[in-house]
Design a protein that fits this description.
Number of helices: 9
Order of helices and strands: HHHHHHHHHEEEEEEE
Shape: elongated
Structural class: alpha/beta
Oligomer: single chain
Distance between the termini: 132 Å
Radius of gyration: 43 Å
Strand content: 15-25%
Helix content: 40-55%
Largest sheet: 7 strands, mixed
Length: 311
Amino acid sequence: MVGLNVPLTDTENRIRQGSVVHQGHDRHSQHRPCNKTVMLYPMPELLEFFQRFSNNWTLTRFPSLARIHDAMDPVAWTLVTLLVAAVGVGIFFSLNTRRTLLYPDEVESTPALLLVRLKQDPTVLSPVAIISRLGSEATLELLEYGDGIRSKEWRYRWNGVREELLRLLSQQNAFGPTYALARYYRSADTQEPDTLRIRRTALVHKLGLLRQLDPGPDGKPAELRIRSHPAEVEGRLGFVGDTAWLMPDEPVLPAEGPVIEMAQIEFRTVQDAEVQLHIRRSPTVGGGFRLHLKKRRNLWVVVGEEMEWVS
């Protein structure tokens, strides 16, 4: 049989490039499903379109810079200027704000570095930021450190921060802040009587951990006078100076130097108490305070303070 090279028509070419039609080989094939895969190929028109598109895509067809410049109007120039300015501002801020919190010389980098900075200057951050970044344990360390420094410059900056830190910690009813306050007040021992822990808490709250009052101008030491109930248990409060436990109506001689007078404890409930303190640094300088304490998780903390008088 002689093979002939006969050119194919367009219809035959499309049939060869398109779907492959499978026909049955016997008279029962029309009843059997066909499992062969039908493969589809791109149409010649689509291939020709991509070929023409690639042939016409040349850089020589783009307009020149001179033509672009001549076609620009004031509105177009304004839009281009705004676009360039926006891109420049975005690049500037992305480069200047990238990972700034990880620099070792920043205040907010790590709690350890922050604590070191606060020990140098307690006013670098607000009390709210101090507690949120340090936590109750590190804040307790800062309170203990701050109360141990007696220089006038430090006390001038520290007193306001200390009072606000104690107020913020007392507002939290969680165990962590409450236990940190109880340890700061040196009243975390639940085996001690409540009255003794309340008085020590009030004393530390007003005088700090050292629990001392500066001597008077004539060098006379300070004295602590406590008006107590006859059934109240006496104990050590840690005050630096003489401590006198007095009955409610017991007479007493006038103080020769600074004096702290602590009144009898007033219990509203078994978990709510108040105590008054009168602090006289001299016969003409002093103040009266009323402290409100609450018992949380068997620990006493100061939750409120009122100033009754000042001179």
